[in-house]
């Protein structure tokens, strides 16, 4: 992909709509082999961008889901101890007594279990998604920074394993905590805001073409109104798509206030938010979009 416009067009072909700023950032990430750090509320399309990039590039998507306490063994590599033990027993049964030979055989590549980070280094091309890095701890963040600086890792028993072609790396954060500046400096940064009405409607129409135009417009208007209601967890684009899909599954071609309230569980996930939404004048929101 030779320019940002082509990147944007390829992403749109996958069903992922981008604005100029995101298209430029993605182009630079591809051209400069820099990780792309995506930050914003949950459900605004950060993870979906990685999937769209993988589809646009024709590359496998390798995902590392971060969580509290994640360590290198879970993210990078581990040894297949059960297979090593079976090999050791088989060698002993065959009368092999050379300790050096046994040790070299036990730590052969065939017994190495590649976790997502190592798989991404060994797979060309690939797109590596490091999802919700803000859930990991500081030590893992420092480890990841070192790996992304060289796109290589040292396995003591095997030596240094280096990526011939660096993977396309997308890191996401829901900002449950601040990620350290050292990691951010290594990356290109893009903040994902909630989309405008027109862009969100275009996303719904692109992703759910079977949903009626009227229903797509009404659901988008309702979600936009809910985001202005000071909710615990404002709905993202993912929830907009879920709500439209749920209403379509009920056979609705349009929605009224009663049906909207009955299906709030598709878009809101906290009791406090549901109570607040029931107190809104959803009928007025729908009337404002009526024709």
Key attributes of the depicted protein:
two-stranded antiparallel ribbon, 15 helices
Description:
The chain is an alpha/beta fold. Helices cover 50% and strands 14% of the residues. It is built from 15 helices and nine strands. The strands form three sheets. It has a five-stranded parallel β-sheet, sandwiched between helices. A hairpin with a 3-residue loop joins strand 6 (152-155) and strand 7. Helix 10 (197-207) packs across helix 12 (237-249). The longest helix is centred in the C-terminal third of the chain and has 15 residues, at 213-227. The radius of gyration is 24 Å and the shape is elongated. The relative contact order is 0.13.
Compile the SSE list and pairings.
Blueprint lengths: L3 H10 L6 H13 L3 E5 L5 H12 L3 E5 L6 H4 L1 E3 L1 H13 L5 H8 L5 E3 L1 H7 L4 E5 L6 H13 L1 E4 L3 E4 L5 E6 L7 H6 L1 E5 L4 H11 L5 H15 L9 H13 L7 H6 L8 H8 L3 H7 L3
Parallel strand pairs: 1-8, 1-9, 2-5, 5-8
Antiparallel strand pairs: 3-4, 6-7
Helix pairs in contact: 1-2, 1-3, 10-11, 10-12, 11-12
The first-to-last residue Cα distance is: 43 Å
Radius of gyration from the CA trace? 24 Å
Name the average pLDDT: 92
Instruction: Tell me the helix content.
Output: 40-55%
């Amino acid at each position: 992909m030779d320019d940002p416009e082509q990147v944007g067009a390829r992403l749109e072909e996958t069903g992922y709509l981008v604005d100029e700023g995101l298209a430029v950032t993605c182009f630079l990430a591809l051209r400069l082999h820099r990780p792309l750090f995506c930050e914003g509320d949950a459900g605004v399309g950060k993870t979906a961008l990685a999937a769209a990039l993988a589809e646009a590039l024709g590359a496998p998507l390798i995902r590392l889901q971060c969580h509290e306490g994640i360590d290198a063994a879970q993210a990078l590599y581990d040894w297949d101890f059960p297979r090593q033990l079976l090999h050791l027993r088989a060698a002993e049964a065959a009368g092999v007594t050379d300790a050096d030979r046994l040790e070299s055989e036990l730590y052969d590549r065939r017994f190495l279990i590649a976790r997502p980070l190592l798989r991404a280094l060994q797979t060309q091309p690939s797109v590596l998604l490091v999802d919700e890095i803000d859930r990991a701890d500081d030590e893992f963040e420092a480890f990841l920074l070192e790996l992304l600086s060289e796109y290589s890792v040292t396995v003591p028993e095997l030596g240094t394993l280096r990526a011939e072609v660096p993977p396309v790396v997308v890191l996401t954060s829901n900002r449950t905590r601040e990620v350290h500046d050292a990691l951010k400096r290594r990356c290109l940064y893009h903040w994902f805001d909630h989309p405008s009405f027109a862009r969100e409607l275009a996303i719904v129409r692109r992703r759910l073409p079977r949903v009626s135009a009227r229903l797509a417009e009404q659901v988008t208007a309702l979600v936009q109104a809910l985001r202005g209601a000071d909710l615990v967890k404002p709905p993202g684009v993912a929830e907009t798509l879920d709500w439209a899909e749920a209403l379509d599954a009920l056979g609705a071609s349009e929605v009224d206030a009663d049906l909207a309230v009955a299906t709030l569980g598709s878009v809101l996930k906290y009791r406090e938010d549901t109570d607040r939404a029931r107190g809104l004048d959803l009928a007025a929101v729908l009337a404002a979009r009526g024709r």
